[in-house]
Each structure stands twice: as C-alpha cells, then as structure tokens.
Amino acid sequence: MQTGEEVLRGLMIDGLGGDAAAHASLLRQIVPLLRGFYRRRVRGADDDVEDLVQETLIAVHTRRGTYDRDRPFTAWMFSIARYKMIDHFRRAGRLRPIGDLEETLVVEDFEAGLIARLDIDDLLAGLPPKQARMIVATHIDGLTTAEAAAAGGIGQSDVKVSVHRGLKALIAKVQRTQR
C-alpha cells in the first residue's frame, strides 16, 4: 500500500514527465493539505486561507522544475507554503524587518535549522517508516491527525498509535545517548 507521500511524489514525477492528468490530480489532492496547514497558522478570514492556497498551487505549478525527484514531495511543497505564509504576514504588516538584523537572523536560523533537521532526520531514520512519516506529518508539517491519516492512507487511530510509539522510541533513544 502506498502512502500519501508516495502517491503525491509519484503524481509530481509523472506530471514532470508530461502527464497532465497526473499534474492536475496532484494539485487537487494537495488543496486539503494546504488548507489545513494555513488554517492552523493564519488567523483571519477564510479568504486569506484560500488566497494562500491558490498562491501556493500557482507556485507549485510554476516552480515544479525545481523539484528534486529524489526528495520527499511534501517537504518541498510545505517549504513553498511557509514562504507564501511569510509573504502574507509581511504584506499584512505582521512581520517587520529591523535594519540588518533580518539578514543575520535568516542566515543563523538557516544554519541552525539545517543542523536541527539533520539531527531529526538521524533520529527518525531509526524508526519504522510509518512511525517516522506520521511524526513528520503531525509534529513537523503541522497536519492534524485526520489530515495525516488522509495523506497517509491510514486510519486516524493508526496515526495516533504510530506517533505515540514513535515518540516513545525517540525519547528512549535520546535518553540512552545522554548517559
């Protein structure tokens, strides 16, 4: 059984290969994921959420040539979504740069984020794949249990059990390394 990530990645690769139906299907299937992502993060009118979803769909379409076929599709898509959200906050006046501090923070945050991501990837690599995917979906990508279940093609209770067992294993692993 393929996971939601595998299906979406396959549709993206097929779309890059010229399959217009696969590309259209991909764009339809990511709409609920994007709506959920933005609803949890953007306070305001539903119009703002829908605008962000549409902007992200356009960016996924126009920037599809930058997608690395060897990387997870959802990570690429959610990084685009994060940039669109930041742009939205800037337009709304919720993010204001402070002199040259913004450039410094961007570089420092990027390096710290990259190191943290590598550490997380190392930790998750030791888990069964389903547990790792569900932890990423719910705790990193910010999906609800229902959204992660739909994206993964599994039940909500399976998501909860996978996340619980995976986090328990990660805690034990971290505790062992601290000794």
From TrEMBL:
Residues 27-94 form the RNA polymerase sigma-70 region domain. Coiled coil: none annotated. Residues 118-170 form the RNA polymerase sigma factor 70 region 4 type domain. Keywords: DNA-binding, Sigma factor, Transcription, Transcription regulation. Belongs to the sigma-70 factor family. ECF subfamily. PANTHER family: ECF RNA POLYMERASE SIGMA FACTOR SIGD, RNA POLYMERASE ECF-TYPE SIGMA FACTO. NCBIfam families: sigma70-ECF. This is Sigma-70 family RNA polymerase sigma factor. The lineage of its organism: Bacteria, Pseudomonadati, Pseudomonadota, Alphaproteobacteria, Sphingomonadales.
